Amino acid sequence: MLRNTSLFAALIGIGVSALPADNATAYFNGLQSSLINNGLSGLWNAIVVANHTDSGPGLINKLYSDDRFTIYAPLNSAWDNSGLSQPPANGDLVSLLSYHIVKATLNSSTDIAPIRHHTIAFTELRSPTVDLPGDQTQVIVLETAVNSTTGDNANNGDVLVRGDSWNATSLGDQFVYENLFIQPIDKPSPLLKTLAQSGLAISANLGATSALSTISSTGLNETLSQDCYGCTFFIPVNSAFAAASASTNYSSLLQDDQRNILLNHVLNGSTVYSPDMSSGNAYITSAGMPLVYLTNEGKSFISVGKFRASILRSDIPVSNGVVHLIDTLMVVPQNNHQKADDAASSASSEAHARTTTTNVVGIGGITAPATRTSSAATSTPTQSQSFAKKSNGINAIWKMAMVTFVLGELWI
Ligand SMILES: *[C@@H]1O[C@H](CO)[C@@H](O)[C@H](O)[C@H]1NC(C)=O
Ligand SMILES: *[C@@H]1O[C@H](CO)[C@@H](O)[C@H](O)[C@H]1NC(C)=O
Ligand SMILES: *[C@@H]1O[C@H](CO)[C@@H](O)[C@H](O)[C@H]1NC(C)=O
Ligand SMILES: *[C@@H]1O[C@H](CO)[C@@H](O)[C@H](O)[C@H]1NC(C)=O
Ligand SMILES: *[C@@H]1O[C@H](CO)[C@@H](O)[C@H](O)[C@H]1NC(C)=O
Ligand SMILES: *[C@@H]1O[C@H](CO)[C@@H](O)[C@H](O)[C@H]1NC(C)=O
Ligand SMILES: *[C@@H]1O[C@H](CO)[C@@H](O)[C@H](O)[C@H]1NC(C)=O
Ligand SMILES: *[C@@H]1O[C@H](CO)[C@@H](O)[C@H](O)[C@H]1NC(C)=O
Questions:
Q1: Residue limits of the FAS1 domain (predicted)?
Q2: N vs C: which end of the chain shows fewer Cβ within 10 Å?
Q3: Ligand 1 environment, Cβ below 6 A
Q4: How many CB atoms lie within 10 A of CB 14?
Q5: 122 - beta bridge partners?
Q6: Sequence ranges of the domains in the chain
Q7: 3-class DSSP state for residue 318?
Q8: Cα–Cα distance, 388 to 13 (Å, whole number)
Q9: Burial of 5 (0-12, 13-18, 19+ CB in 10 A)
Q10: If you take atom 14 of ligand 8, which residue's CA is the nearest one?
Q11: CB atoms within 10 A of CB 279
């Protein structure tokens, strides 16, 4: 199992009947008041609009349950600035809302990884909007925000939601309503534009144009978009291609060799986020060669053959997997189709086996570089009390994975 999962039980307290929202109507009335009182009437409006779509009620009704959620809640100005003051009454809106809801509690002050690490949480966004293996949901990538004046990295409760070429930032304090942690943010994730795109389109946003043009010229467009279902893309930045051309005979290689070289940067059928990787982990690429992940002095590397690339930026979610940017083109034209096929089919069955444990969230608690922090039960007594709610006092089982990770030296 790749993902470091663990379970803990969150006690649902007694005294349940003392809570106001002991039925759905009361619960949603209370949510409405709570959102409006906290400057989030735009979000409430979006919920009401989504409630009239086909898929909306399924998402909205999920909130009234024994599960606990964190909602990244765009402020009113955020909806307006994004041209979404009249959100579309269709599945796009439901996808957008889904991407802002995480089925676990992430305390903005204590559970978010400091910059250069990530807290990765599974949102409620799933297929068909995303093509991830085993009906896995799309992740949200969070880190603490740095004070832009002082450069201070202390976690003062400010959170950054990282996208490919966008960030959303928390604005104001997180508050609790019943089973919900609600964190106001300054913009909705521009999900409709970006998360619906494949790794290829995201690579364009990231300026990895050399990789894109090589993918196109070697005829790999479709293979890496439609035929890559939940893939991990190690995308070399432009300078990597320039360096490879200068130092090897890369650019004069046959197209088949160039294609294999690119496929040696892709894992087919496994979406491997940085926290899934431990030093020494070995994978089989789409070309069938071994790819090894290593850490050294806080930096992260991958190697294929005699080439080694440093990971510059990790965990950029794309509709069909995840992108990690690397600094070196690993010029390995060798391939082994049999191994590639075997790896793809075992990745696929592993991913399906994983569906039962993917209601999972990463929670901060970061220590040294390159360590995966073990999953602490971050549910403090205070939190448990604020979450004591509704129904019958059973124990809710929470599944969690720890997900922190160190980036390489550079940021892009
Ligand atoms: C729901 O809860 C509210 C507030 O406690 C109460 O006034 C109302 O009668 C309840 N409705 C139903 C259908 O139980
Ligand atoms: C969603 O719509 C249903 C049916 O019209 C209604 O009963 C429910 O109160 C609505 N929920 C919200 C949160 O608007
Ligand atoms: C988050 O943790 C901080 C520090 O422990 C605590 O003061 C705060 O109340 C917590 N927030 C929520 C919403 O529980
Ligand atoms: C950044 O730090 C300055 C100086 O300590 C402080 O006044 C300011 O409130 C901080 N900004 C944020 C967004 O925390
Ligand atoms: C997003 O935040 C990171 C800091 O974590 C920063 O390096 C990057 O430039 C930001 N991106 C945008 C588009 O603002
Ligand atoms: C591949 O995709 C790129 C970018 O979307 C496009 O410009 C190019 O024409 C495509 N190439 C082929 C062969 O389809
Ligand atoms: C040039 O390409 C050939 C064929 O792939 C390879 O055997 C040779 O080692 C390469 N030379 C250099 C300098 O990389
Ligand atoms: C991934 O594996 C599937 C099934 O074996 C195959 O159809 C597809 O072409 C592969 N994609 C890549 C990028 O290797």
A1: 27-166, 195-330
A2: N
A3: 20, 22-23, 25-26
A4: 10
A5: 139
A6: 5-137+139-194+374-401, 199-351
A7: strand
A8: 5
A9: middle
A10: 286
A11: 13
Fold observed for domain 199-351: FAS1 domain (2.30.180)
Q: Are 317 and 195 in contact (CB under 8 A)?
A: yes
Ligand 1 pocket mutation pick from 19, 22, 25 by most atoms within 8 angstroms of CB? 25
Beta carbon of 4 within 6 Å of any ligand 8 atom = no
Query: What is the residue with the minimal CA distance to atom 11 of ligand 6?
Result: 216
Measured in Å, residue 382 CA sits from the centre of ligand 3 at 8
- Token pair of 8 as six digits: 């803990």
Give the Cα separation of 352 and 347 in Å (integer).
9
**282-284 β-sheet, strand order:** 266-267, 231-236, 321-326, 307-318, 299-304, 290-296, 282-284
- Averaged over successive runs of 10 residues, the pLDDT of the chain (412 residues) comes to 29 36 90 97 97 97 93 94 88 92 90 82 87 85 84 77 87 95 90 67 84 92 89 95 85 91 95 86 97 89 96 90 94 96 89 51 30 29 26 24 28 27
- Cα–Cα distance list, 282 to 33, 169, 294, 330, 386 (Å): 51, 35, 9, 16, 43
pLDDT at 358: 34
And the tokens for 85?
């003051």
Would you state the CATH architecture of domain 5-137+139-194+374-401?
Roll (2.30)
Longest dimension (CA), the chain: 74
Quote the tokens at residue 132. Answer: 């991830």
Closest C-alpha residue for ligand 5 atom 2: 167
Ligand sitting nearest the alpha carbon of 331: 7
Q: Is 304 helix (H, G, I), strand (E, B) or coil?
A: strand
Q: Whose CA is nearest to atom 12 of ligand 6?
A: 216
Alpha helices in 14-112 (DSSP H): 24-37, 41-50, 56-63, 76-81, 91-98
